[in-house]
Amino acid sequence: MLTILGYGAALPARIVTNDELATMVDTSDEWIVSKTGIKTRRVCVDETLTDLAYSAACEALQRSSTDPGDLGLIVCSTICGDFTSPSLACCVAERLGVSVPAFDVNAACAGFLYAINAAAAQIALQTKIKSNFDGSAHGDSKKRILIISAEMLSKHTDWTDRNTCVLFGDGAGAVVAEPGGGLRYIKTYCFPNREVLYKADATSSPFASYDIPRGYLRMDGQRVFKFAVSKVGEMLDGMMNSMSLTPNDIDYFVLHQANKRIIDSARLRLNLPEDKFPTNIERYGNMSSACVPILLSEMWEKGMLKKGVRLFMSAFGAGLTAACCYYVCD
Ligand code: UT7
Fold this sequence. Notes:
The protein contains ten helices and 13 strands. The protein is α/β, with parallel strands linked by helices and 330 residues long. It folds into two domains: 2-181, Peroxisomal Thiolase, Chain A, domain 1; 185-328, Thiolase/Chalcone synthase (Peroxisomal Thiolase, Chain A, domain 1, 3-Layer(aba) Sandwich).
């Protein structure tokens, strides 16, 4: 599978507080903090999504002592890049000045783990192709993979809808990976349900028999909440069964930062201390697929990702998608 060599993150400069939101919609700091744990979020003003993605990528490249020329692949996860086409990954490749395969995955908030899965699959494929050719494992000099999750939810949010606008934020996280044994288990899921969380776009085709109004993110919060609480538990149980692990074998639970109450419910179910569940939701809100890699980058900065540290990561989002992995730091 793969091993992560370096972590990076980038956040827009503009901070939006709950009190500021209370001047825009009928809400309060007390409601937002007690219902979600969010105190502030970052929102793009001048930054493009490519700016954020590139900046997170540069940090991960620098921390892993990787020259862009050492990259063999770029995978981005995002619900929407700066352009419908070309992909965000291609925009980042252009900024880095590299000509390597580059593509986006859209699995909403589970996107980072879907992208890790795609990268691991690519490594497995390359290894197999290489061994078919000359009997050796994949080992050329361009084997490193840049994986970026970048989201600008401020662009997709209805800022007059208090049910959603208090939840989201913008940001990007990145990792540089290469073939290795850090990733021990990964699983991706989709439980199709379009109604509980979606964003519609306009169709302008004169041939279309239906009309989809230009839309913002809409969500049935309670149904997503229930889905999240049950799926995080089920995914963890499934991973532990497969790997013959117990909750005490995990050092940190790096969970999607959608709601502090969802994280707390996973922790209380396992009866584990709060310091095993790092968070940044209080500062950044829900940044969709960027939550997990930004949190990883912050954990790395705090020295929490030393060799041998065992992580359970999981995320869920529109689709409804879900994904989890077990990763042992190399
Ligand atoms: O990344 C994955 C996607 N998202 C999620 O994982 C989100 C999952 N869901 C949630 O986090 C929670 O469902 C929310 C935080 C969105 C809402 O919390 P809740 O406990 O499910 O509240 P609710 O939707 O049942 O609303 C309770 C009340 C309602 O008023 P009434 O009908 O009881 O009078 C809402 O209208 O709170 C009201 N409300 C608000 N009040 C103040 C909804 N949003 C707000 C708000 N400020 N921002």
